[in-house]
Write a structure and sequence with these properties.
Chains: A alpha/beta (about 240), B mainly alpha (about 350), C mainly alpha (about 350)
Strand content of chain A: 25-35%
Strand order of the largest sheet of chain B: 1-4
Mean pLDDT of chain B: 89
Number of domains of chain B: 1
Shape of chain A: globular
Largest interface: B-C, 40 and 42 residues
Radius of gyration of chain A: 17 Å
Oligomer: heterotrimer
Order of helices and strands of chain A: EEEHEEHEHHHHEHEHEEHHH
Shape of chain B: globular
Number of strands of chain B: 4
Radius of gyration of chain B: 21 Å
Number of helices of chain A: 11
Number of strands of chain A: 10
Structural class of chain A: alpha/beta
Largest sheet of chain B: 2 strands, antiparallel
Structural class of chain B: mainly alpha
Mean pLDDT of chain A: 89
Largest sheet of chain A: 6 strands, mixed
Distance between the termini of chain A: 33 Å
Low-confidence stretches of chain A: 236-242
Low-confidence stretches of chain B: 1-10
Strand content of chain B: under 5%
Order of helices and strands of chain B: HHHHHHEEEHHHEHHH
Number of helices of chain B: 12
CATH class of chain B: Mainly Alpha
CATH topology of chain B: ABC transporter involved in vitamin B12 uptake, BtuC
Helix content of chain A: 25-40%
Helix content of chain B: over 70%
Chain lengths: ~240, ~350, ~350
Amino acid sequence: MSDPILSLNGLHTDIAQYHILQGVDLVVPRGQVTMLLGRNGVGKTTTLKSIMGQWAAKSGEIHYDGQDITRLSVSARARAGIGFVPEDMGIFRDLTVEENMVLGCTSGPLDPKRKDWLLSAFPALGTFWRSEAGNLSGGQKQMLSIARAMAEDRKLYLIDEPTKGLAPAIVSTMARALRELKAQGASILLVEQNFSVARALGDSAAVMDDGRVIWNGAMSELAENKDLQERLMGLSMEGALR
Amino acid sequence: MTLAPDHKPTFADLTLGERLGKAMPVLLVPILVVLGFIAIGVPSSWLTLTVSGLAMGMMIFIMASGLTLVFGLMDVINFGHGAFISVGAFVGVSVLIALGDWTGAASLLLNMSAISLAVLAAMAVTGALGWGFERVIVKPVYGAHLKQILVTVGGLIVIEQLIHVIWGPDEIFINRPEMLKGAVTFAGAAMEKYRLLAVGIGLVLFIAMRMVLRRTKIGLIVRAGVENGPMVEALGYRLRLVFIGVFVAGSALAGLGGVMWGLYQEVITAGMGEEMMVLVFIVAIIGGLGSVEGAFIGALLVGLLQNYVAFLEPKLALVSNIALMTAILMWRPQGMLPVVKAK
Amino acid sequence: MIIKLLSGDQPRSAILTGLLLVILVCLAGAPFIFDGVRPLDTAARICIFILLAASYDLLLGYGGIVSFAHTMFFGLGAYGVALASTHLGRGFDALLVGSLSGALAAVVLALLIGLFSLRVRAIFFAMITLAVASAVAVLVSQFSSLTGGEDGLTYKIPRVLTSANRVGEFMGTRITGKVLNYYLVFGASLVLFLLLLRIVNSPFGRVLQAIRENDFRAEAIGYRVIWYRTTATCLSAAVAALAGSLFAIWLRYVGPDTTLSFEIMLDILLMVVIGGMGTMYGAVIGATLFILAQTYLQNLMGGASEATASLPLVPDLLNPDRWLMWLGILFILSVYFFPTGIVGRLRERRAS
């Protein structure tokens, strides 16, 4: 296997006086979907924000696509090809869906072919193309946030809990879009609470607890080994599997 | 490609009250104009006052637009903004005095060329000054409102005093260019030519600003940045550069406003910017900090109300603005068109 | 006893203690130590501005709120005394009625402004106070039939407090009503300053500081942030108004320039920032240095300006009228490099 698209070595991040990340080691293989799992409050969102640079790492290294990005600014990381879908979606509510999408392209206008593809993946966005994004429903906003990150070709996508609180039909729309994205060669790091979604989408997985990654390996290994699940996440995923 | 059936359009129909609430700020200007008509009773006086109120409002808007955008983008409140108004006025008036032959000639072309040159010089100087001000005064105190207020007030004092050093301690009187003196009469109402010009320039600028903000990529970035700066950066834009650009443009506009205000008053002082800041703040607050449209409506309201009240009860003219601000803040504590921050 | 008077808030620096003692002794003995009218006038101004700056520090240093209406409150107190003395006739009752009504007006106005602007965000407060203060200044100069307009008001104060009242001699100095007047100013300033010190060291003062550090958390713990900030605004306004009343009693004159101008507002800001925000003693040091510099340094600048008359631009920069520019530069530099002011610096030296 080639070198990973992203690797974190001993990442420590503080938020105010709280020591949130306590030495995160993580490998995200190229061209795969990697699921970042764990209970609430173990530092998954902080890990994504640290990769993006929104929280400055206190120590440790972030290597992305062959370069050390630990000290780069947020916007420089984005321009290096990292797309970010934050937990709060970060939709510009006063702007139209179209304007949100246009802002997703930093290097030029929105490519018509890519637009067609995204609109076929997320048809609702086409319906409301010229409406203010603030008027969209929660699920539509989530789709817009993902589509906006995908508006131009990026190498790595950081996506924070895209299925939270969404209806199953929307979840399947989203899962399909992410598979198409992977098929185009992108790598994805996805925070997910829903284990069935994680198992269906993930190639590899990392489990966090108390500000550290406690397990990093193939998704299939985790999915088949209930003892491992129980040990890592404190409860069996059996219920969620159905 | 089947669309899941359960996320159909969810736009709730707005009730009449909600629609009215949304449109209300825009409706306030015509409402005030009509109320003015009723209170004044004499159509010709009313027309004269309305034109001068609009002219005044346009000039205040030009000065306020930069301040409100700067606040919206980076949460920076610049109490030194008034210094750019004064500097713009002094630079512009100096150019006009130097071009005395052009302004004295009875030629609209020469007159307007002189004004254009004065405005360009004023905007260039205040824009450059704004750039320096941002680097030296504002940049070290990002994110700290208390220090921002203190330091920018310090900057205001120093620049005002430097005006005294360069241009001397006295006020400077200035005559309007030949063709802009006097008034035109329409329907029995005398309307000063210069005020009509000011209304025209203000309208053109407002429309241009709206076009830039609505139709260009940079405008999109600015609007998105006002709403959620961190997300704009996470998409890959250098918000700081955008901010410096807006700061410089806002300073240049303040300089333009200063030239226009100087020609309106026909006298300039180093303290004029400081005095204008009161109106600029009122306009920015009642419009909703960060909102250009809000500042526009607010400026027109302030200009019109002040002119109407000055006619009806001269001593209450300035207090009328405070009353307006109080009324609007009681109605909407965040201003008429508040910018909703993402967090 | 002394510690109790200071509400347990000691200077915590030997140099600072020394400076404060020197200032206290000089002010307490001013009529006997210094000769002539001007030093006494300077001493009285120092007393009043210490009080004014200290009341502003309650807001700025302890509350973290920037107000531009402090001179307005100062002016309300001054005009209260002036108007009462003009209309009720000379007498102590007029002084009392004037001071109290001035302070009451200041509290009411502060309450209104506070409830209005602090409700939304603290930054509104700075902008709105600026607007309101300038409107009041314009009103005062416009309603000249009542306020004397730009010319201000001159009035009579009780004869006991004027130099026409000769009391006798003490330690080789002739005691006149003017000296008694000075001690009224000095005593009232001292008492009110100690009261402010008590306020900032009370539980109320501590909550105020907690809000300054993190208003969000203070609110979450259950403190009504608006209530605390508005109360601080009202207290500060009341003390500023009383300082204004003392100023009016001392000067026997009020005018917009001496009580309401934006320039005085800047002076107060400078005193507090340079002395040290949030320390109360900073107000003492800042106001004393500032008034002394204002009184004596401007002469020095005049001399320097003449001495450099042959150079280009330099004499203009050193012109005594450009005094404010140098203060502005000093102000910016102190906010950047000495955010804790002189007092903070002295205390750090001791700590290290």
